[in-house]
């Protein structure tokens, strides 16, 4: 194994410590509300980690857990109440939602000023237009890792594997904004391995355990593994075959301990940003 391991867990801890210092100077506690509907098991870990991190950093954090059979109208009413609550700065509606609820309807119901996931079409549009707004946590976290690790982005060939609204697309926008030459690959891409081999920076966000093999990676490339996949034996693995990839790459993020903890740190960052924008430096 030759690649440098990019320690997202350590970077996230530093970001959270800095946030805690800033929050301690405020006359209010930034308020974060996570709305969870039903019992998606993958969401459990994330919601617990987030609550712990938010409280430790001095945020006023709470989870609103609604039953699995909650109707769309009931969820929208809950979101409307949080939109109207002046103590709430950030709202996150945990995905996936049960089938009776349209995800787009829930996302669009969140006040864009409190949309700490950055999923609202207004914030997605701002990002695409190069305007300031709330940026999705996972891609924001990836940009922090790249910056903290001294990865030169200007003019670099970046390949983003995956085009979801929550990871792939905003990731590509941020890399483009940092002057990368960006390729977005997806399930209809003709030759994924060949596209990936051209990447100096490769971001994998497909949700397929170990799909990216060692021979898909250019020697010395920076590999960011966004995938969080639970195997039947309980292990958590990324979208990249780690051992193979680490033998070729110049640097790589592990799973766990890579991008996941950064997502939570950036959720807190977004919540503080939203609070300061709404309330002033208070
Ligand atoms: N670290 C973190 O904090 C987070 C991690 N994740 C993880 O990241 C991964 C991706 O999440 P998300 O973006 O929400 O997933 P989605 O399922 O929404 O999107 C997956 C994307 O990958 C593409 N894809 C799927 N299979 C293939 C394939 N065989 N070949 C090429 N492309 C493929 C899809 O293509 P198409 O569009 O053509 O269907 C799609 O664009 C998951 O493992 C998820 O758990 C997600 C959020 C946060
Ligand atoms: N509205 C919404 N926003 C999200 O950002 C969102 C979501 N819904 N639904 C689910 C996905 C997934 N996700 C994770 C974030 C952090 C870890 C995380 O902390 N992972 C740690 C530890 C995980 C463990 O130990 O099990 C790690 O990778 O090291 C995992 C998963 C956010 N998501």
UniProtKB/TrEMBL annotation:
Q: Which organism is it from?
A: Neoroseomonas eburnea
Q: What is this protein called?
A: Bifunctional protein FolD
Domain Tetrahydrofolate dehydrogenase/cyclohydrolase catalytic, first and last residues per copy: 6-117
Q: Which reaction does it catalyse?
A: (6R)-5,10-methylene-5,6,7,8-tetrahydrofolate + NADP(+) = (6R)-5,10-methenyltetrahydrofolate + NADPH; (6R)-5,10-methenyltetrahydrofolate + H2O = (6R)-10-formyltetrahydrofolate + H(+)
The record's annotation in HAMAP family points to: THF_DHG_CYH (MF_01576)
Keyword Mitochondrion: yes or no?
Answer: no
GO terms, biological process? L-histidine biosynthetic process; methionine biosynthetic process; purine nucleotide biosynthetic process; tetrahydrofolate interconversion
InterPro entries xrefs? Aminoacid_DH-like_N_sf, NAD(P)-bd_dom_sf, THF_DH/CycHdrlase, THF_DH/CycHdrlase_cat_dom, THF_DH/CycHdrlase_CS, THF_DH/CycHdrlase_NAD-bd_dom
**Per the database record, which ranges form the Tetrahydrofolate dehydrogenase/cyclohydrolase NAD(P)-binding domain?**
136-276
The Enzyme Commission number assigned here is 1.5.1.5, 3.5.4.9
Pathway assigned to this chain's UniProt record:
One-carbon metabolism; tetrahydrofolate interconversion
Gene name tied to this protein: folD
State if RNA-binding is listed as a keyword. no
């Amino acid at each position: 194994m030759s690649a440098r391991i990019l320690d997202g867990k350590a970077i996230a801890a530093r970001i959270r410590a800095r946030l805690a210092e800033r929050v301690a100077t405020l006359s209010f506690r930034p308020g974060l509300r996570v709305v969870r509907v039903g019992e998606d098991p993958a969401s459990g870990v994330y919601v617990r980690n987030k609550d712990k991190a938010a409280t430790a950093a001095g945020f006023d954090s709470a989870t609103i857990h609604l039953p699995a059979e909650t109707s769309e109208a009931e969820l929208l009413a809950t979101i409307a109440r949080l939109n109207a609550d002046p103590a709430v700065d950030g709202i996150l509606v945990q995905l996936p939602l049960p089938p009776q609820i349209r995800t787009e309807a829930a996302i669009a119901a969140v006040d864009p000023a409190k949309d700490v996931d950055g999923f609202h079409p207004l914030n997605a549009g701002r990002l695409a237009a190069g305007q300031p707004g709330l940026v999705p946590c996972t891609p924001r976290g990836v940009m922090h890792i790249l910056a903290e690790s001294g990865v030169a982005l200007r003019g670099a060939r970046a390949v983003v594997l995956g085009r979801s609204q929550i990871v792939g697309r905003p990731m590509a926008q941020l890399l483009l904004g940092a002057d990368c030459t960006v390729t977005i690959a997806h399930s209809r891409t003709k030759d994924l391995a060949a596209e990936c081999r051209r990447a100096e920076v490769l971001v994998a966000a497909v949700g397929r355990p170990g799909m990216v093999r060692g021979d898909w990676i250019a020697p010395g490339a920076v590999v960011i593994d966004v995938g969080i996949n639970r195997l039947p034996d309980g292990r958590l693995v990324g979208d990249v075959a780690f051992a193979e990839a680490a033998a070729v790459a110049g640097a790589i993020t592990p799973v766990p301990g890579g991008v996941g903890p950064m997502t939570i740190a950036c959720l807190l960052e977004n919540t503080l940003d939203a609070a300061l924008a709404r309330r002033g430096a208070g």
